[in-house]
What does this fold into?
Amino acid sequence: MKLKSILLGAVLLGASGTTLANECEATIDSNDMMQFDKSEMTIPASCDEFTVTLTHSGKLPAASMGHNWVMSTKADMQAIATDGMSAGLDNNYIKPGDERVIAHTKVIGGGEKDSVTFDVSGLSADESYAFFCSFPGHISMMKGTVIVK
Ligand code: ZN
It folds into this structure.
């Protein structure tokens, strides 16, 4: 009990100065129903880097129900997904060298997970960002909004 209150004090002390590390990371789950468990994610502009961990709570393999987490501007998302369709699973359904992609995980299957860490400094609170899955056909159901603030 005493240790717990000391730890809590340390956490509160840390919060007063800089952004807590755990505010600079998020986990999003995907499943065999072609769904993400979030439709909106927030990236604090105060973070230097942000880490997204994608999990897949389903059972189907990546070849048939694979998912990735891709971030781009809202304006670029559909074109990235369209170009990524022919890139294949080996390229995580992302056209190699696609500079419109801000960050992406690899394509995972049921029971797997993958993380991606990216710089926040280049993001703007005035821009509209989105996340989606670029597995062919999934973007219609698997997409959401990324808010930078
Ligand atoms: Zn998917």
